[in-house]
Every structure is written in structure tokens, then in C-alpha cells.
Amino acid sequence: WSILRAFPNWLPRASVLFADDELTLAMKKTPLPFRVYDPSSPDAARMGIKQFAQLSGLSVYPAASLMARGVPAVFGYHGFESRYFDVLFGGKNVWVNQLSPSLWDLYAVRYVTLAQAESLQGFHRLVGPTQIGGIITAPHGAILFERDSAIRWVRMIPAGAKVVDSEIPPTVADPRFPYNSYVLFPDTASVKAGAPGPTPAPTPVTATLASWAPGAMTVKLGGTDSRTTYLLVSENWYPDWHARVDGVVVPTHRGDGAMLTVEVPPGAKEVSLWYDIASYRTGKWISLIALAMIGGVIVGDRTRRRVADA
Q1: What is the phi/psi pair of residue 109, to 5°?
Q2: Could you say which of 151, 183, 285, 292 would form a disulfide bridge with 157 (CB–CB 3.0 to 4.6 Å)?
């Protein structure tokens, strides 16, 4: 204590430290789901110093400060993100693909925050430049950009293709890749897709997000297609994602390197998705039973003592 007492740095309450500013208030007017891109400073040792300095100077909300305000960001999850996400964006804490317009679209980036006035193709300035100050925010001002076109949290892809897993991230991040025509799967995936071929015709099937909550959503499908199509969701795939197509349980797949994907048969009308960890539920019941047993032992021991004392 005699040593450590000199090191604490007392900060304001969280209600002050993470108070909303003009940018976050503007973003919160938009119903979820959407994401915000704030430049994540890459490792200077693995990227050019100039690139590192540019991205560092553009960042507005370091670490998970946007998430603390209830605004979902592409980065800032303190290492809890999927390893497939890390690879897709070009390496953990390096993120060499973070400026890919394809990934911005696939991950439903509606807003971009910058600490300097820049022009962004496909985006318009919504707020700023404005001073937002604070300990964890840019002291010199910030600008909020909004996408000109609507984002898509769910989309229908007309064809799938299997390729070597390591080839998927650089291919998807390449702006030349027709990511709305193909969804790429590892060559070990159980989907029916084969090798890439000619660019397929767009599918007439449309996907509409009917309901959404963290870890659960319902997607309505309109139109018909004689082909098997693929629902691509702006969520990271995990094994604990589950799906039903018209009430029938179906597997989920990892498409485009890291994204939640479902095979959709011809004529399907609805896809429901939910996140559930069976081992968590099992562990919860084991914990409750163990606590009950411990409580029984304590009560029984006290009862025996009272009987013995009497």
C-alpha cells in the first residue's frame, strides 16, 4: 500500500467519463442494428510509421469507449472477438484490411468517426467538427460521417463457393471481389457449394430483418428462386449460433471468413436465428445444485449442533 498509493489516478464517475456527446447522441437516434467505424491504430512495428500516425491521429474513441456508451463499434472489444474476425481484418491489433469498403458494407458500417476533416466516398458529414473533450475522447474535436445509402444487416447471396480457407480474407477484402454475388466457404465446409464459376445472376429472393435483439433475430424472405441461396448476416459466426428455416432446424456456417451464414432452400419464407450456449446452461444448473447442497450441509450442521446443545 505504501508504494501503490502513489499510483492511483482518480477519474470522474462513469456517468461523466462516458457521457454522451454530440456524435453519440446523433448515432443513438438510429435504431439498432448498425455499426460505427472508428480508426483502430495498428501496430507501428508491423505497418508503416506514416500509416500508423495517420490512423492514430484520426481515431476519436479509443478502446471500448463507444461500446460503453451503448454504440456498437467495429473494433474495441478488448480481445473478445472471434479469431476469424481477426484474420478477416488482417491480423489482431494490426487490422491491415480495416479500410476495405467491402468489409465496411458487409459489417453494416453506417457511421464513421474521425478526428480530422476528411472526405469519404459514399458518406456525408452529419456532425462536426465539434469539440467533445473528456479524458478518453479526442480533445481537439471530432466529425461524424453517415453512409449515403442504407446498410444491410441481412442479404441474400445467389451462389456459394468453396476455396482454401487462407485465401478467403484477402479475397473478400479486395474491392474487386463481387461479394454480393458469391459467399466464400472453407473447402472443408459441409455446404453444397462447389468451386467458383462464372458470376451468377442476382437472386430475386429478398431478406428483410423483421425483428432483432442481441443474440436473436427473425428474417423474412420474399420472392422465389429455384436455386439454393445463402443468407449472409452482419454477425460474426460462432458455433453457438442456431437457425431454423421455416421452423426446421438447420446448421449455420462460417461464410466470407467470419460471417454468420445459412443455406436457404428454394421457396423458404422465414429464417430465425438465436445464440445459445448449451454448456452455459448446464454449468448454471450444476452451480445452482451445488449451492443448494452447500446450503443443505450448513443448515443440517447447525441443526445437529442445536440438537446436541439441547
Answers
A1: -75, 110
A2: 183
Integer Cα distance of 246 and 270 in angstroms: 5
How confident is the model at residue 64, as a pLDDT?
80
Alpha carbon 3 to chain centroid, angstroms: 41
Cell of 125: 458529414
Of 275, 278, 209, give the one whose Cα is nearest residue 238: 275
119: number of Cβ within 10 Å: 8
Classify residue 141 as left (phi > 0), alpha (psi -120 to 50) or beta: left
Q: CA nearest 257: which of 148, 140, 97?
A: 97
CA torsion, ordered 72, 73, 77, 83, to nearest 10 deg: 110
Q: Kindly write down the DSSP assignment for every residue of 58-111, as one continuous string.
A: H--S-TTHHHHTT--BSS-STT-S-HHHHHHTTSTTT-TTTT-HHHHHHTTEEE
**CA–CA gap between residue 101 and residue 174 (Å, rounded):** 9
Q: Quick: pLDDT tens for 119-132.
A: 788 999 999 888 77
